[in-house]
Amino acid sequence: MSQTTDATAHRPAAPRADGFVELSSPAELRELLGEPHPIVIDKVHDRLTDEDTGMLARSPFCLLATSDGRGNCDISPRGDAPGFTRVLGPGTLALPDRPGNRRGDSFHNILENPHAGLLYLIPGSTDVLRINGRARILTDAPFFDAMTRDGRRPVLALLLEIEEIYPHCPQSLRRSGLWESGSRPAG
Question: Which CATH code for domain 50-174?
Fold first, then answer.
């Protein structure tokens, strides 16, 4: 967004006693960010495309975002062999639950609030796939046998009914140098 000098330019509110200047409205936010390019809006869809399923087949890792009934958030990493997310149809995914810390924060949240988001990454790639929808927790289904790994059949699976999907902007991965070996801290 280019700087402007006319009377409609954003004028920040007076700083609070702590020195912070807080944004207070969606209109202020839109004024600061500008309007999104139509291609950003047009890329959102509600059914998996061939490109989406191709990325899911290559991805060994995603982040699962949930929140409880009070809005307290949780993000949980999920990973397995590439393609661990099972595509059940153009609008439905299933993720096997693998043994971990047994806290089950995401599952507790889903029991209170079914809204969930998934963010898929592929190591070495700047491709990012974002999927939002309504989640359910399954204790069995005909596809559980196909999700068996190392002789262990999952006890639980997350079923996500997709509401929106879109390829996410790769700029954060580029800026961070996440996959560049020289960007990794020593230790």
Answer: 2.30.110.10
